[in-house]
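To whoever picks this up:

The nightly regression suite flagged Formate hydrogenlyase subunit 3/Multisubunit Na+/H+ antiporter, MnhD subunit as changed. Nothing in the input moved, so I suspect the structure step. Input below, exactly as stored in the fixture:
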Amino acid sequence: MTHLPNMETLLPLLALWPLLLLALLLWRRSRAWAAALAPWAAVPALLLALYAVLGAALMSPAAASLNLQTAAAPPTLEWPHLLLGLRFGLDATGSVFLLLAGLLWTLAGWAAHIYHRHDARRHALWGFWLAALSGNLWLIVAQDAIGFYAGFALMSFAAYGLIVHARSAEAWRAGRIYLIMAVLGEALLLSGLLLRVAGTDSIALPLAANGGAHANLATVLIFLGFGVKAGVLGLHLWLPLAHPVAPTPASAVLSGVMIKAGLLGWMRFLPLGAEPWPLLGAAALGLGLLAALVAVAIGLTQRQPKVLLAYSSISQMGLLTLGIGAALLHPSAWPALALALTLYALHHGLAKGTLFLGVAVLAQATGTARRWALAAQALPALALAGVPLSSGFWAKDGLKQALSGLPAPWPEALAWLLPVAAFGTTLLMARLLWLQAQPAAAQDQAQATAIPPEHATLEHPTPSLRTPWLALLLASLALAVPGLLAWLGWVTPLPLLPTATPTLTSLALALLALLLGVALATAALHHPWRALPQISPGDLLDLIEAPLQRFWFALLALSVRLDQYRGASTSPAHRWPRTLWLEERQLRRLPVAGIALLALLLLSAFLIG
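Regenerated output under the current build:
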């Protein structure tokens, strides 16, 4: 890979720059211009990623054979006296993830600048935005386990402020569930990380294969810890609740790039390509397939576009989980799978970010502009469904090629199950377009029965988000161009493309899944989609929350009766369940609590160093 002179020295600055803006945002005198710079805080990361990726593609004579897993280790910058020794570097995989993060955070930041121009709480939003961006960039450029974990934790907890920004009852509930799942994920991840590094002398990434006494437990804990962020089936409960209440630009980065941190964590921390893990690999394959199919079935019952897109993200992340499971099951397939998963992450992040911003654009558009916007919204939807020669087709075909080397019966089963998943995605995208094609009054009425409009907290009408949305749409569509040119034989295949030419069978299956989905969706127009019984967002959460609520109220009643029996004071200080509830309500007073936590984490890190 071609590098800038001492490029590694610039990498920590990518993550520290948003934190510097955050510090200036807290100072009243610099708050105005810090808020003006905040939407563009990811531009340096985008420029550096473009140089790295395009430099590798255009300047390296071996670009066509670039292997994301076996490429030489990149130059690194070390800070040995901070924490356990921080290392920064940018390998081929990190370059692509940095490109996705830089592009999506920049265009979503542009949209957020427009969207929240008249928001009375915009400075609080920019504070959490910058903290989440810093953590996201930090984990991408980190080449040590502790640095990656620190960035991952910062991104995870800062995202809470984005989710609860509307301050509605639904936002608080979604934030509470997200925070519970985030803490659970961090506990699992930290436990697995400590067990994992205990059996090795180095914490450099990717971690070496661990043959210690607790290798099995550590690997499972790491898989589950990152699985919370990646939306693995069963750990996905926060996703369909968070997206509809978060501002649309925040939803774009949450689904487009933040959940990809779970995938990157798997790629960095799990012992992929070293030795087979049959049980965990088979479990990940099964969970991935179930997520790809079950999330589609639940998503089809939804009546809000953003909830439907959340379930679509769970389904698509299921395919990435499937790829990780295949690598655990069959280590020799990992180099090809690393390439396929990286391309799939880039495709999905751009397409899903475009679709989320398109929801806000269509909610504002009327007349002819609305019809044109709906037609443009169909383009990333078709790519997500895998229409032949789109970015989704190249991503899915590359994944299918990488999975072809698995032991029987997986290749035969996946050859039919993957087209079924594509068929389901086509139905889901048709449902999305149908929902967005409804008259604005009907759409507002449907939203009013579930979650209040997200822009209800704004004091003035929201300006148009059309320009950043179109920019992201063009970036999503451009991802398919190199594959098309290489397929026609006009250019040499680029590093992020499958090396084998798609077969006529692959093209036919992709086209068949698309046509069947369109045909079924068209037939469903005669039987209104809204007649489908809706499964509440969070699905499994209803089964969990009801018993917990009954237990909590029973505990509260028991506490009061015990106080009355003993003749003790019945003030809230003596009724600890109510006291905990009051303390939780006090902790919700953000951004003070969030900023204090961030300051404490940073101070602790530097004091330890």
